[in-house]
Specification:
single chain, alpha/beta, D-Maltodextrin-Binding Protein, domain 2, transport, signal, Extracellular solute-binding protein, Bact_solute-bd_prot1
């Protein structure tokens, strides 16, 4: 339902209520409240869950947000800032949970539901969904990246994939075999996800002391930041870089990997269901590459939490819907349909999921979620991310001077001395 159509429905219902001096529930022609769930794009998995979790007391419908996570944030934030009541539920990227919670856009999750969600969810999923000590959104699915590779390429390069490999090793292997290392390096949130994982894998962080707000410690200009810059520069200036590196998002990097000269790819869990049938026995998987040899990698953490708008006219019903949408069964069903893995161990126990995926791959996904490095949980992440994108893009421009340049720009942006 569009905002305009919903507005007309509310107006018509209000007129009827005045005429009859009777209050009735609004949202559909039957009088049953309609909960509108704004979802990130997928292949219909969220719409299917919306149908499954609808009840005689409420109907859940879906509206698609833009593909890009930053644009999703912009659309939701503008409407919530205007107290738009046509949003009941929203699929929210972890990077923006703190911002929305701090702004007061999200309805408080009842204690009983919050306790259930915290008990069933992975620790990383709970941390990414928490602001100011309270669960702000309900963990729905928890994504992570692993290293996908062509077995034939790794064998030709002489890589032992039963042991951890480094970014240097896979770049060198791709150059040796005339293949490509596909990553996400467009000027968007996904590029910062990669940078954050590289920095964390080298033992550092982008910002610290996030509770200090704009006075957070800007830590990217460090040995870890320079290690990350070195990896990006090495790939960008090597024959292993795909020609579309500077515009590559998830889809473009996936296409590079399945091309004839594909060799290695870091990407999310959905790759198995999307490309497994295409590559068949040549598709391999391994832990995310190490930034520093011998130092455990810190894969990206992603996913979605479901938030309830503070301005919804049906908050109680929406919270009941959240309970169903984020149940272990719903998470497992969604993982089977979309390839985005559950935020709970219970979701991984869904029989159809265990049947569809190899046991060692599901184990790798859960291990990677445990090791993952979430982006800093701060209401100012959008500004920090945009500042990093401005100073680290394109990848071919990155050098050992980039971390210092980005640290200075982040600080200036946070304190209002520079504009994005």
């Amino acid at each position: 339902m569009t905002r305009a159509r919903r507005g007309r429905g509310i107006a018509a219902c209000a007129a009827g209520a005045v005429a009859s001096a009777t209050l009735v529930a609004c949202g559909s022609s039957s009088g049953t409240p309609e909960l509108v769930w704004y979802t990130n794009p997928d292949n219909g998995g969220q719409a299917a869950l919306a149908k499954d979790c609808s009840t005689p007391q409420y109907k859940i419908t879906t509206q698609l947000l833009p593909q890009d996570a930053t644009q999703q944030r912009v659309q939701l934030a503008r409407r919530l800032n205007a107290h738009d009541d046509s949003i009941d539920l929203m699929s929210l990227d972890p990077a923006f949970t703190a911002e929305f919670a701090n702004a007061g856009y999200l309805a408080t999750i009842p204690d009983d539901l919050a306790n259930t969600l915290e008990q069933q969810s992975f620790k990383g999923a709970v941390s990414a969904s928490t602001w100011d000590g309270k669960l702000a959104v309900a963990p729905f699915w928890s994504n992570t990246q692993v290293l996908w590779y062509r077995k034939s390429v790794a064998q030709k390069a002489g890589l032992d994939m039963s042991k951890p490999v480094t970014w240097d090793q896979i770049i060198d292997a791709a150059q040796k075999t005339g293949t490509k290392v596909a990553v996400q390096a467009n000027k968007y949130e996904g590029y910062v996800v990669w940078i954050n994982a590289l920095v964390a894998g080298a033992g550092g962080d982008i910002v610290g002391d996030v509770e200090k707000g704009v006075d957070a410690s800007i830590d990217i200009n460090s040995d870890a930041g320079k290690t990350a810059a070195g990896i990006i520069a090495k790939l960008a200036h090597s024959s292993a870089a795909p020609p579309d590196l500077s515009v590559a998002q998830e889809g473009q990097s996936e296409a590079s990997f399945v091309a004839k000269n594909g060799g290695f790819l870091t990407n999310w869990t959905y790759i198995y269901s999307a490309d497994g049938p295409t590559l068949k026995d040549d598709l391999g998987w391994a832990p995310y590459p190490e930034s520093v040899q011998g130092q455990q990698s810190r894969p990206p953490y992603g996913g979605i939490g479901i938030g309830v708008s503070k301005y919804s006219n049906h908050v109680d019903e929406a919270m009941k819907a959240v309970s169903c949408l984020t149940s272990a069964q719903s998470q497992g069903k969604y993982a089977v349909a979309e390839g985005n893995m559950p935020a709970s161990a219970g979701g991984y126990d869904y029989p159809a999921l265990k049947k569809k995926y190899p046991a060692d791959l599901l184990e790798l996904f859960q291990q990677s979620v445990d090791q993952a490095a979430p982006r800093p949980v701060t209401p100012y992440w959008s500004d920090i991310s945009s500042a990093i994108q401005s100073t680290w893009h394109p990848a071919s421009s990155v050098s050992q001077r980039t971390p210092a340049k980005s640290a200075s720009f982040i600080d200036d942006v946070l304190h209002g001395r520079s504009l994005l």
